[in-house]
Amino acid sequence: MRLISFITIAWSLLLSKPFFQETSIFPFQNKHVHASSIIETPNGDLLACWFYGSGERTANDVLIQGSRLKKGTKIWESVFEMADTPGLPDCNPVLWVDKKDKLWLFWIAVRANRWENSMLRYRTSTNYMRKGAPEWGWQDDIILKPGDTFAEAIHAGFDRYVDEPMWAEYALPYSKLIVKAAKEPEKRQKGWMTRIHPISLSSGRILLPLYSDGYNVSIVAISDDQGNNWKASNPIVGLGPIQPTLVPKKNGSIVAYMRDSGLEPKRILKSISEDSGETWSFATDTQIPNPSSSVEVLVLKNGHWVMACNDTEEGRHQMAILLSTDEGTSWLWKRYIGQAPKNRNISFAYPSLIQSSNGLIHISYSFKTDEGKTIQHASFNEEWITVKTR
């Protein structure tokens, strides 16, 4: 059966026929499993991780779990532990393989059960292409130090683009409270959280997208020495632009698409950097609905862009795959990974996207039904997105 499945995939790719298959990484269960991340290892295996426990930031039993799908097989391995900070919730894991084939796991340990107190952590491995959990060789924390330009950028962005006419000294508007907090160095150095894969630029620069629930904005952690040292970009300012996914364009600019954690209308937000991630434009609405849920965008090998998102203004009851052939100017094709009536207890959320070496697109995401909760994995090709359906 495994050989037949592998041949089917190969022929679908060769003949450009639509291909789609999906499976649960593990059986439905009742614990909270969320915020998965997926990568392909150099030997063709798939590796995924997620956080698992009795809740999120308020549940101190939350840890990072993972599983592996060996190349050419259909069943994911038994779940194993990837990281656990004793007594603290571990959340929002992100996997990444760098240009030297080193595996990175980024995640947050939530201090005092508050997102804004989260500690950004990472560990690395060069021995991870075997059964079970990677053998970790190094672990450390990343402490960013956004300077005064952080506060200046937030003040300038809100002053230019946000109009809040009503306020009083006892009832300061949102923007004034954020600007005030941005001037405090201690707050600037904590609470930066992961969610989406990093990207590596042609220069070798690594960009790790981060966000803060304390400031309700995003930044990018920048490394120019293969991850040995990190610095903070200027913030991506706006009304709730969080959980950025970064997409490099052919002209050298970088687009950040973000979850909308702000006011209506609920739309995926967008910001642009023209200087390799150092500074960012004020985040503005796109035309794509977003119910305050995570989104990821991927550049395919042929230059086309694929987006995975909940394309609703309320609810996570459908997960869409969008395709652009003009670097995000338009998204002319859309196909659904899953759809359910809004009033049903079914949700598809927090996608993680990659393209494997054989050209297939892979997505992992949180999947919840009345049967329980799991992390779902699906693989498909571009033809599956563009095929006409009734």
Automatic annotation (TrEMBL):
<feature type="domain" description="Sialidase">
    <location>
        <begin position="195"/>
        <end position="363"/>
    </location>
</feature>
<protein>
    <recommendedName>
        <fullName>Sialidase domain-containing protein</fullName>
    </recommendedName>
</protein>
<feature type="domain" description="Sialidase">
    <location>
        <begin position="44"/>
        <end position="131"/>
    </location>
</feature>
<dbReference type="Pfam" id="PF13088">
    <property type="entry name" value="BNR_2"/>
</dbReference>
<dbReference type="InterPro" id="IPR036278">
    <property type="entry name" value="Sialidase_sf"/>
</dbReference>
<dbReference type="InterPro" id="IPR011040">
    <property type="entry name" value="Sialidase"/>
</dbReference>
